[in-house]
Prior knowledge:
Blueprint (H helix, E strand, L loop, with lengths): L4 E6 L15 H14 L6 E6 L11 E4 L3 E3 L7 H10 L11
Parallel strand pairs: 1-2
Antiparallel strand pairs: 1-3, 3-4
Bound molecules: FE2/S2 (inorganic) cluster.
Amino acid sequence: MKFEKHVFICINQREEGKACCAAKGSEEILNVMKEEIKKRGLNKKIRINKAGCLDMCTKGAAMVVYPEGVWYGNVTLEDVPEIIESHLIANKPVERLIAQ
Ligand code: FES
């Protein structure tokens, strides 16, 4: 496998007034996560990708980490370092953010 971990972050924007990840700042979360991975020199091992709707619109920002298939909901910008350090590097999923 090319990447050890693959993170898909929903950046979907739904119609005005409907809950969605874009309205919860998911694009910024995506950009910061990418930068942080690059800063740590992990961009050859860990891939951060944009995703369309992950069907967790009321729990935005939503993301899923493979190969584990761990789903996170209500993620904010402040949670990014913990997801990287704990889950992506130390292999310990961040329990308090697990959704589904
Ligand atoms: S808009 Fe993100 S899960 Fe649907």
